[in-house]
Amino acid sequence: MSDLSHLLTATRGLYQRATGHLRGDLEEEQIPLYDLAFGTAELAAAEEALAAAAAAPAGGGYLGALAETFTAEAIANALQRLSVRLPSYGLGANDLPPGWADVVAGPLSPQRLALLGRQVLERGGAGGAVGRITTSV
After folding, report:
1. What's phi and psi for 76, nearest 5 deg?
2. For residue 105, how many other CB atoms are within 10 A of its CB?
3. Which of 101, 82, 4 is nearest to 49 (CA)?
4. Dihedral of CA 113/114/116/117: which sign?
5. d(Cα 42, Cα 30) in Å, to the nearest integer?
6. CB of 11 within 8 A of CB of 80?
7. Residue 117 needs a FRET pair 20 to 30 A away by CA distance; which of 16, 64, 91, 102 works?
8. What contacts 62, CB < 8 A, 6 or more positions away?
9. pLDDT tens figures, 95-124
10. Contacting residues for 42 by C-beta, under 8 A, at least 6 apart
11. What is the pTM assigned to this prediction?
12. In whole angstroms, what is the distance from residue 90 CA to residue 88 CA?
């Protein structure tokens, strides 16, 4: 199991723990409940993406890169949602997986995203809508 898969499992566990902490009071806990529902859906989709890539020939190749990027983004989003309201979920800073930012940094690096973007365009994806942004300072 890759570092990303381990981190996904750990994040799902945190979400289960956080869900168990809440009472389900829509009046008082609307935002935490929404965040947990949204994050849980993203994490479930990431699990499915990784499983589909693993089942693909040659380790997934392009599909694997897409799955890894999506999973890293889902984990980063999920942990960010928790981290801004840790006490609401009965969690503390030490409950977040150590080194999580380092694990997601690789798949989300500008270089990896640019490479993946080129692969998407080469395959005819994104409708050719991606262009070059120029800036002047």
Report:
1. -60, -45
2. 13
3. 4
4. positive
5. 18
6. no
7. 102
8. 119, 123
9. 999 999 999 999 999 999 999 999 998 888
10. 74, 77, 78
11. 0.87
12. 6
